[in-house]
Structures are given as C-alpha cells and as structure tokens.
Amino acid sequence: MPAPDAPYTVADYLVQRLQDIGVAHAFGVPGDYTLDFLDHLVTSPIAWIGNCNELNAGYAADGYARVKGAGVAVVTYAVGGFSILNAVAGAYAEHVPLVVISGAPAMARRESGALVHHLAGDHEMQLNIFRMLTVDCALLSGPRTAPDDIDRVLTNCLSWKRPVYLELPMDVARMTCRQPEAICFQIEKTSNPLALAECVAEVVARLDQAQNPAVLVGTEVARFGISRAALQLIEHIELPYAMTVSAKGSLPELHPQCLGVYQGGLSHPETRAQIEDSDCLIELGVWHTDWDTGLYTSKLGQPGFVRANLDQVRIGQHLYPGVQLADFVRALADQAHPRHYRDSHPVRRSAPRAPYRAEASQPLSAGRFYQRVEQFLDDTMILVSDIGDVICAVAEMHIEEADNFLTQAYYMSIGYATPAALGVALARPDQRPVVLVGDGAFQMTAQEVSTLLRHQCRPIILLVNNDGYLIERYLHQDQIYNDLQPWRYAELPHVFGTGALSFRVTTEGELDAALAAALANPDHLVFIEACVGRDASDALKRIGATYQKSYRKAS
Ligand SMILES: Cc1ncc(C[n+]2csc(CCOP(=O)(O)OP(=O)(O)O)c2C)c(N)n1
Ligand SMILES: [Mg+2]
To answer: Atom of ligand 1 at shortest distance to CA of 473?
Structure first.
C-alpha cells in the first residue's frame, strides 16, 4: 500500500488490479529490472513467494490459477522471461488464466537500442515471443496509457482463461498515474438468442426420442466455471455421465450417475459401451486430444451426437455458431424433460476391485502402490499428478468429490506437479495436496520442495521411483536414453529445509507405515519415495501396447 503522501504510481496501479482479480500470492524470481515493482508488491497484501527458478514460478502460478481463478508470476527481463516460457505455453494450451509480469529496461534505453544486460536480440524480441503464447499482452510504455492497458489485458485473461503478458519498464513502474476505477474484468459473451433457442429445442427433441442418452464432460467445463451448471443439467434429466482424463475432477466421481473416466479404447469396457453406444451423446466442452481419445481409439460422433464447445454447438450435421457453452447448459437444464432415467436405465459400473490389504513383507509393485494410494485419498486432499506412469494410473482412481484433482493432461510437461502443488497449497490452505510424481519428472523441478518447506506447506509427496523414464520404455523401447542418475531422493527434503518427514519404502508394510505417519502428521511436509522396480501400472501396459500397435504407426 502506498504511503498516504506518496504519489500513486503505475506499480501501485498494477498491484491494486492484481488484488482486484483475486490474487493473494505472487510467484517469481527478482531481478534488477523488476525491483521497483516488487518494492510496491511486498508492501501490499499480496504475499511474495520467491521460487527457485522462473519455470517453477510459472507452474506454481498455473496451479494457483486453476484453483483460484487467476495466478501471477513476476520475472526479470529475458533471463527470467525466457525461462518461464514453457509454463506459459502449458497455460495457453490448457486455458489457464496466468498473468506474467516482466520487468524491462527503462524506456529511454529501449528507444536508443542500448546494449543493456540480458538483452538477447532487439528490445522487442521478448514482447514478440510472448505475443504468440498469450491471449493479450502490452508494453506499459507510459503512465498515461498503462492503466487502460493493464485493465484490458487482465480482462482478456479472465474472459478467455488464457495467459497474458505485461512488460513493465523499470522507470515506468515509478511514474505517477491515475487511480483505478471500479470495473468488471469479465466480458460476458452472450449467445445469439435465436440460435440458442433453436439449438436447445433440437436437443430436447432428440433427448425425448433417445433410448440411452449420456453426457461426456470435457476440459472446458471446469476451466470456464460451468461444473455446477453441468451437474444441475445432468441431475435434472438423470443422465449417466463420464469425464475425459483432462476433465477428471470437474464433477464428482462418487455420484450414482457417474460412469468414471472415458478414454476411448483405454476406458473400462462398461464405461466405453455406455458412452459410445449412446444414441444421444451430449459432449460438453470436450477436446478430442490424443490422450483424451485413448490415442485416437475413441468412437465418438455416432448418429445423434451433440457436441457443445465454448462458442458453438454441433448436432450431427447442424452447426449453431454463436451459442455459448454456459448458456447452452443452463438453457438445456431449463427446457429438457426430466426422464427418471436412473430407474429405467441404471448406470453400469465396473465391478469394484477387491479391497486392498497390505501384505507387510511383499515388495511393492506399481499396481498395488496405485491401489493403495487410491484407498488413501480422502475429501480433505487434492491430488496433483505429474506426467509419466502416474497419469496413466490416476485415470482409474476414483476422485470422489469435484475439484480434488489437477494435472496437465494435454500439454504434459514433466515436472509440473511439484511446483503446481505449491500454488495449490497456498490457494487452498484447508486442503492437503497429494503429489504423485515419477523420478524423472521430479528431477526437473525438485528444488521447489524447498519453497514448500519455506512456506510451511504440508503436502504429501509420493515419488514413484521406477528407475528412469518408464513410460518411454513402454511407448518406444528400453534404451539408455531412458535411464536416470539414481538420486537418494528421500534425503532431499532434509537438504532443502527443516520440518519434513521423509521415507523410502520398498514393501507394502513400509508404505502403510509411511502413509499412517503422513496422516498422523498433518502439519508436516511428508515425502515418500516408493520403490517399485521397473514395474508399470496396468494402465501404462495397455497404453504402451496401443501406442506401439496403432498410434506410432499412424504418426
Ligand atoms: C519437459 C518435458 N520433457 C520431456 C518430456 C517427455 N517425457 C514424457 S514422460 C517422460 C518420462 C517421465 O519419467 P518419470 O517421471 O520417471 O515417469 P515414469 O514414466 O517413469 O513413471 C518424458 C521424458 C515431457 N513430457 N516434458
Ligand atoms: Mg520414472
């Protein structure tokens, strides 16, 4: 907060606007080009969370944004700006509202083309690169235009749920500007009312005729805040529903109408049949990515299908542009006739697995490990999964309540989960993140355990030590490029800070004891290295076979 007699600056304006969009923490790494801005930020109610590097700051802000609706990372010019790019690309691909603020040389130096430190090419290079990876960006070139630029860029971030970029020259940060006015940051995109009415009437007629309608929930539902409305629709007409892997966590799985996760030919047969044999499948915000379609083994688009995405609905060969997904879901819930479908067509579910009972001296296998993790999870925990065997295995884990699961199932950058859990832990202090991460992914961003410890976060980190890049051994072949230097992982939390409990487990009994310790110590970061040899989940074995048989040959 600026001192009462201090001039109101561009930095103050930006800090205020970050608070206005709901940001209470900012992630990043400082540098001389950002220090003037950071001086204002650290005296504001926004907490500064210093990360070990900018990529991790980007992942942390991404995890934070998925939970809280917006996340911010502050980096210095070029060396920081270029380091965060991979996280920004992930947020762009997955529709995450991430705000990146980069310091920059003073305007006079920029205009003279001075060879200042960190400059990689010309002074426009960083802005031009970010232009491609964001939905909007601005060089805050002066105090007269900066407020409007900031408001426009943040509005686009929240409206399109995509990253934005603000480049703040160090001198402009200190310049006096106008105070903010009350504005609404969300552009309400409205549907074409005639198209909406006609489209909903057509879907209602189809639903009335259908014998076995169903809903497939996709990524856009949670990202655009439509989960509650989607569940109301589903409950109103009592339809069975499944979620794609990237939409897992958007609706509860402990629901009498839930079929679990649909992933094409990799799904459970009962789930697959009820989705693919539906004579009126309503897809809500589904992306037909390779992963969500089970490496293109899905059979969607059968006669009678309805495909609703962000701003259009397709019903068979009829296209309704200009119909917003949120409007479609609400209008359909309003107009569809309830079916009491639950009694006439009970949902078929996979037979429950035999309950897990540990055999104390049994060496840990991957399958048993994942089964134990599923049993361990409860509603107070939020599962944050990395990429690797873990993302194959999580598809089959039931996450009972909505909003308790998070991953990067489309962009799939390994190393995402550990820093993202930092963002989640700070955004949702009442819940405990459970991180599932492979040894390879962990080696990418392991340092962020130190930031978790520094801020008294108390996640449970489950590191699957399967001796290298196991997924790549299954997708391709067992080669030396999939080997890793074996770290003494369980020692790392003690190197990074104090207050962690750390375990290395090789048997089912040791795993049980470590998980019990995690529950008994809710105020500690608990790190468990689970050694499973080179064993893979059943899901990865199936995915590997499908990849080798069809996906790779067609690529
Ligand atoms: C940043 C990044 N680099 C490389 C890859 C390619 N890649 C995908 S999975 C994977 C291996 C993951 O290994 P690990 O975390 O140990 O998981 P495992 O499959 O062994 O369980 C790699 C290297 C990637 N997705 N992201
Ligand atoms: Mg591994």
So the answer is: 19
Question: Which residue has tokens 């930095």?
Answer: 11
**Residue 472, ligand 1, Cβ within 6 A:** yes
CB of 467 closer than 6 A to ligand 1? no
- Identify which of 364, 365, 466, 469 to mutate to test ligand 1's pocket (most ligand atoms within 8 A of the CB): 469
- Encoding tokens for residue 224? 């655009």
User: What is the predicted pLDDT for the residue at 1?
Assistant: 60
- Please give the DSSP secondary-structure letter assigned to residue 31: -
For ligand 1, is residue 413 a contact (CB within 6 Å)?
yes
Distances (CA, A) of 232 to 17, 37, 45, 336: 33, 44, 37, 12
CB 294 within 8 A of CB 267: yes
Indicate whether this model's pTM tops 0.90: yes
Ligand 1, residue 413: give the atom nearest the CA. Answer: 26
Mean pLDDT for 147-168 is: 97
Q: Counting beta carbons within 10 angstroms of the beta carbon of residue 318, is it exposed (0 to 12), middle (13 to 18) or buried (19 or more)?
A: exposed
Q: State yes or no: pLDDT of 555 exceeds 70.
A: no
CA distance 7 to 353: 65
Radius of gyration for the alpha carbons in the chain, expressed in angstroms and rounded: 25
**Mean pLDDT score of the chain:** 95
Taking the C-alpha atoms of residue 437 and residue 167, their distance in angstroms, rounded to an integer, is 34
Q: Which residues contact 343 (CB under 8 A, 6 or more apart)?
A: none
- Binned at pLDDT 50, 70 and 90, residue 163 comes out as very high
Note the Cα 333 to chain centre separation in Å: 27
Q: Rounded to whole angstroms, how far apart are CA atoms 368 and 360?
A: 12
Q: Which tens digits make up the pLDDT trace of 430-485? A: 999 999 999 999 999 999 999 999 999 999 999 999 999 999 999 988 899 999 99
Give the pair of three-digit tokens for residue 261: 């996760």
Segment 201-226 shows an average pLDDT of 95
Q: Give the integer Cα–Cα distance in Å for 33 and 336.
A: 57
3-state SS class at 461: strand
pLDDT digits (tens, 9 = 90+) for 360-415: 999 999 999 999 999 999 999 999 999 999 999 999 899 999 999 999 999 999 99
Task: Please give the pLDDT value at position 340.
Answer: 73
| Order of strands, sheet of 241-243, starting from the edge strand that comes earlier in the sequence | 258-261, 241-243, 213-217, 280-284, 306-309, 312-315, 318-321
More confident: 145 or 353: 145
d(CA 365, CA 70): 39
What does the pLDDT read at residue 378? 95
Identify the pLDDT of residue 2: 61
Q: Which two structure tokens, joined as six digits, stand for 28?
A: 């990043």
Given a contact cutoff of 8 angstroms between Cβ atoms, the answer to whether 184 and 311 are in contact is no
Q: How far apart are CA 339 and CA 434, in angstroms?
A: 39
Question: Pocket of ligand 1, candidates 387, 410, 439: which has the most ligand atoms within 8 Å of its Cβ, to mutate?
Answer: 387
Q: What angle do CA 237, 238, 242 make, to 5 degrees?
A: 115
Contact 499, 525 (CB under 8 A): yes
Kindly report the length of the chain. Answer: 555
Measured in degrees and rounded to the nearest 5, phi and psi for residue 440 equal -65, -45
